[in-house]
Amino acid sequence: MPLSKAQLLAWLGKLDAVYAAKKEYLTDLDAAIGDADHGINMNRGFGKVMEKLPPVADKDIGTILKTVGMTLMSSVGGASGPLYGTFWMKPGMLLGGKEELDAADFARFVEAGVDGILQRGRPERGDKTMYDVWAPVLEVVKARAAAGDDVAAIVDAALPVGEKALADTIPLQARKGRASYLGERSVGHQDPGATSSYYMLETLRDVLHA
Amino acid sequence: MKKLINAVENVVKEQLEGMALAHPELTVAFEPTFIRRADAPVAGKVALISGGGSGHEPMHGGFVGKGMLDGACPGEVFTSPTPDQMYACAKAVDGGAGVLFIVKNYTGDVMNFEAAAELVAADGIKVQNILIDDDVAVKDSLYTAGRRGVGTTVLAEKIVGAAAEAGYDLDACAALCRKVNQYGRSFGVALTSCTVPAAGKPTFDLGEGEVEMGIGIHGEPGTHRMPIGPVDALTAYAAGQIIDDPAYTRTVREWDGSGWAENTLTDAPFAKGDNVIAFVNSMGGTPLSELYAVYRKLDAVCKEKGLTIVRNLIGPYITSLEMQGFSITLLKADDEILKYWDAPVKTPGLVR
Lengths: 210, 352
Description:
The complex is a heterodimer of chains A (210) and B (352). By secondary structure, chain A is mostly helical. Helices cover 68% and strands 2% of the residues of chain A. Chain A has a two-stranded antiparallel ribbon with strand order 1-2. Chain A is globular and about 45 Å long. In chain B, the strands form three sheets. Chain B has a six-stranded mixed β-sheet, with helices on both faces. Chain B contains eight helices and 14 strands. In chain B, helix 4 (152-165) packs antiparallel against helix 5 (170-183) and helix 4 packs across helix 8.
């Protein structure tokens, strides 16, 4: 089964609810090693996405993704604004005209999004950032799509990999962002950006199994 | 939290509205938010834009005016502005000679300004993006996001603003800004924390008898804590960190007209015989009188180390809300830098 436009919109709507529910948790994670605003920023950003979606909801998937990216870029702020903005905008540029995403399209989506994060933030694996979740997830997504899985099976395979990658950020010492100034004091905390990224994957799994 | 605010969510907007009423020579736009010279665009002049989180006033909005910035983009308190703000501001102030972004080196600011530069360039406006990274409390750039942008930002905005007013083209403005950044070094000390209105409680706890050394400008922790000593000891420590700082090398990303180029820059340390501009800054809550006590010792340390203070700036110019504390910036001054330092400037925050 491909990812339908209705599922994409359901995913975005559910993400808005997830970031509202996790606002304080994400902010607390950020308070430990950053500047205590990640949950507030994600909640504000997806709230804005909900305002901007209705007029484009019947447009192609590329337009929807670009709208999400532009909205996050201009409302989230901090480092996560440009990172998530690029993550949604880059696939939007690739997937113009699409009404649904098959497994190959979905792999291109994730690849273009992660590529956007790489271009904007220049992270390396182990820097204790959202890329630490996305890098192994992208590998699984590409491999499963090449093996012929459908989107739901791909996401099912990627989720535990993302979950482990998220936990693996805890012992890392940050080398990017404001957390990097803490040096060794950043060790022992789960990365907030990696956490909000994992929620994207987890929420998509929930939507695909709804 | 005891602050002169109405509702927390309206703090920045209401403060900007007040600023607009007080300064008809400025225009404040909302959605997206930016402050610009009312007489911008100035035809044929390079336009300077800076921006960052609010809470550092008078920087940056208070430095908009003739001889300094053409536009400033304030974010929420201590949160970077977003690219749509810089894009709209650039469109509003470009006088045909291009736009220089002066960007403090914080991950959020850097990424948002980079995204903005791409948008501005895509519209056919010439743009350059120069980072300020002068905080010597951050020692290495390999395992961190690099030195933060602090006090040198104020001096760069003044000096490059005057050069733009005098007719420098975009490349020359960018080169001068890069030089000022490479010639400037800063170090900050906090006596108290500060409270972000949305957070409602102090960003960190600092004991009655303690100071935090090597702070940035967002209440982020410094390098270490120590018991408070006399002003002479705190000043000598901060000045020593700056003057004895060795060469500093890092790679910065600069827009080369069509894409991002990675440039490796090395800042030479100060040397005996250097002339310097000395900037003693209040973090917001420290009175001017105490800054003069800092300056008294700073002058002695500079003499001892063979540096000559040829100009000074003393006061609250790059602050962290109501934090008590100070920062010192020393900027090696050559003839070009002094010429534009001495040029007239007329902004709400700095007049000469």
